[in-house]
Amino acid sequence: MAYYGVLEDVQKCIDLQEPARMPMFAMSEEFDVRMAGMIYEDFCQDADKVFECQKLVVEEFGYDWCWLQIDDCIEFEVLGVGCKGSGNVLRATCNYLPADPSTLKGLRMPDFSREGRFPMLLEAIRKCKEHYGDTMCVVGRTAAPFSSAALLYGISETMLMLIDNPDLLHATMEYFAELQTQFGLAQIRAGADAIWLGDCCASSDFISPAQFREFASPYAKRVGQNYQMNGGWTFYHASEYRPSHLAIMADLGFSVLSVSERVDIREAMQVVEGKVCLMGNLDPIEVLENGTPELVASESKRILSTAGGAGFLFDSGEMIPRDTPEENMKALADSVQQYNESRSG
Asked: How far apart (Å, rounded) are the C-alpha atoms in residues 259 and 241?
């Protein structure tokens, strides 16, 4: 639920200190839209619907953030990439642009105040911040430069570029470092406290540690630093679970490093060795969607008792599916509340 002090608690976690209260975060947007009785394709185009959905689920489940992920297409629709979605199926990129210099030369900096769905997202952020003020952590979203290249050219073509056209890949990421910096700063000016910097295409499922160091990390680090120098936190998420990648990510200066449910939270905490605040990592499918309330409570308690304290924020490890049972989400909220009560008592 919204409370005064949530932003101070997040900052304490980022500073690797113990918060007065553990905020209740969950990557639950698809589930939330269902709870609000909305169709996702309608929701993702309407700032009023986004705001009303947030109000409803904050009251019902006690979230301490407004996580305005929406989908991965907002930047890429205006650049000419095909994007498809309908009903309750989220929009996804398709019909990618050719990976050649002429494509890059033809790209421009969008007008975030006028084009596509940029104004919708900025207005939704403004509405959430105006309504909740400092009682809620409002989180906007961008794609990190490496993943942006993959969303522009397609994943397969981008992976080939690592070998046969690295110069064009670097040049493309230079462009996206600027675009995503400006897009994130527009969201911070609109009221976002943090930017969710998504980089799942740079995870160890796609590239090696050496490739991550050369191609992904310099650009993601630059974008994250730009947000942080302008008053916003950077929540970096690559859905990562392998220690080799987590160790590199921990040194990039992000405010928070979100980790996948596929890593044990104790191991992840040991890997980062107090270098960065971790966020995670309740399993959204096996536990939240397919489990029982008892399993949700047990796993939440395990994660909180293992990692709770200094330098940790509780969250799901990935997007919570639309069809997750309502009673499981209530068990999640109750578990965080009980954890906080046990600490204060």
From this structure: 6
- What is each CA distance from 188 to 234, 262, 321, in whole angstroms? 11, 31, 28
Alpha-carbon span 57 to 254, nearest angstrom: 28
Alpha carbons 210 and 215: distance in angstroms, whole number: 9
Going by DSSP bridges, is the β-strand pair 312-316/89-94 parallel, antiparallel, or unpaired? unpaired
Burial category of 337 from C-beta neighbours within 10 Å (exposed 0-12, middle 13-18, buried 19 and up): middle
State the helix-helix crossing angle for 145-153 and 166-190, rounded to 10 degrees: 110
| Mean pLDDT of the chain, nearest integer | 97
- Rg (C-alpha) for the chain, rounded Å, is 19
Domain architecture of the chain: domains with CATH: 6-12+24-263+314-326 (3.20.20.210)
- Please check whether residue 278 is in contact with residue 269, taking contact to mean a CB–CB distance below 8 angstroms: yes
Per-residue pLDDT tens for 141-191? Answer: 999 999 999 999 999 999 999 999 999 999 999 999 999 999 999 999 999
173 near 146, Cβ under 8 Å?
A: yes
CA distance linking residue 156 with residue 296, whole number of Å: 36
Distance CA 192, CA 190 (A): 6
Q: Give 264-297 pLDDT, tens digit per residue.
A: 999 999 999 899 999 999 999 999 999 999 999 9
Pick from 117, 112, 110: nearest CA to 43: 117
DSSP secondary structure of 44-64: TT-HHHHHHHHHHHHHHH--S
Element spanning 104, H or E: helix 101-106
Report the alpha-carbon distance of residue 293 to residue 73 in Å, rounded.
34
Q: Is 171 helix (H, G, I), strand (E, B) or coil?
A: helix
Both structure tokens of 244: 């080799």
Tell me the whole-structure pTM to 2 decimals.
Answer: 0.98
Beta strand 89-94 with 82-86: parallel, antiparallel or unpaired?
antiparallel
CA angle, 76 then 81 then 86, to 5°: 85
Tell me the pLDDT tens digit for each residue of 220-275. 999 999 999 999 999 999 999 999 999 999 999 999 999 999 999 999 999 998 99
